[in-house]
Specification:
It is a single chain. This protein has 301 residues and is an alpha+beta fold. It has a domain at 43-243. It has ten helices and ten strands. The chain has helices at residues 35-77, 84-116, 118-135, 137-152, 169-172, 192-196, 203-211, 219-253, 257-261, 291-300, and strands spanning 13-21, 24-33, 157-163, 175-177, 183-190, 216-217, 265-269, 273-274, 282-283, 286-288. It starts with 12 loop residues before the first strand and ends with a helix.
């Protein structure tokens, strides 16, 4: 019924679920719609997907930091300890990935909030971004590193595996006890002089880096920065949930509860159109319901 044209006067749009069986997929109609109702539901689907694209960018930040963390743990456990030159490039690549995705998400979130959340919620997200930036040198440093890498090349890194005290904060986050009982950790340090020579680096950040004693250990700063970004994303997540609540409610109410509970493959189908390849051949366009997000909302409602 969905894959054939409708009779004059019939609602041309359809909500239906796709069932996959051993004999092939089948489509079960749930409800027919006129254009106005279809448009409202389609816009809701598109808006929800667009909003959640921002969280996909945030997950890239998390994934990149996890890859850096895993790489450092593998280096620490490698016996004999690898030569610095052998690990320099993999560590540099992982660090650049974290810094680049961090800056991309922070900048995107600021623009996204202004465009989609409305003045009230955009202001809350902006406040969260500003709070983390102002409160943490780690956050400010990570935010600046991406542009530093683009402008003058990333500062040279020194990666050193060595024995450590368990209370050495620079090492303990990526450390373990080796087979001889020695606590072994890793340092990833930035060449401060090269960093400070970057004329584009914000003056306040440059002054803070210059005032630090000793080498600038990087991993701890990146970890703190990503933790700060997590708090910002949580604030955005709350605002997004409030803004999308009407769309989520509208979509949930348009289909049977069991479809939501089982996260069935529900779609909005447009009227069939001739393919031009022969009589009786049609194509059907559709928009997929965001069922995982609908189920999460339905369970909380």
């Amino acid at each position: 019924m969905i894959l054939t044209p409708r009779s004059p006067g019939e609602p041309p749009f359809t909500i239906a679920k796709l069932n996959r069986t051993e004999s092939g997929p089948t489509v079960t109609e749930i409800k027919r719609l006129h254009y106005d109702d279809y448009t409202v539901l389609k816009k809701a689907c598109v808006r929800i997907d667009d909003f959640h694209a921002t969280s996909d960018i945030y997950k890239i930040v998390q994934d990149n930091f996890a890859e850096l963390d895993n790489l450092l743990h593998r280096i620490v456990r490698h016996r004999p300890p690898p030569e610095q030159e052998a690990v320099r490039r993999p560590v540099l690549r992982a660090v650049v990935n974290v810094a680049s995705s961090f800056r991309m998400f922070a900048d995107h979130l600021d623009r996204e909030s202004k465009a989609r959340l409305g003045e009230k919620y955009a202001a809350q997200v902006k406040t969260a971004l500003s709070r983390e930036y102002d409160a943490s040198l780690s956050y400010r440093l990570c935010y600046e590193l991406r542009n530093h890498a683009a402008h003058v090349g990333f500062p040279s890194l020194r990666t050193q595996v060595r024995s450590a005290l368990k209370d050495d904060a620079r090492l303990s986050s990526v450390a373990h006890t080796d087979e001889s009982g020695v606590w072994v950790g890793i340092l990833v340090e930035i060449n401060k002089e090269k960093l400070l020579s970057d004329g584009r680096l914000k003056a306040a950040v440059r002054d803070e880096v210059r005032s630090l004693e000793g080498a600038l250990e990087l991993v701890g700063h990146l970890r703190n920065a990503v933790d700060g970004l997590e708090r910002v994303h949580a604030r955005y997540d709350d605002a997004r949930a409030a803004v999308l609540a009407p769309d989520l409610s509208r979509l949930v109410d348009s289909i049977p509860p069991e479809c939501v509970d089982k996260e069935e493959d529900v779609r909005l189908y447009e009227p069939p159109e001739p393919t031009g390849t022969g009589e009786g051949n049609f194509r059907v366009s559709y928009t997929r319901y965001p069922m995982t997000r609908l189920r999460a909302y339905w369970q909380m409602r």
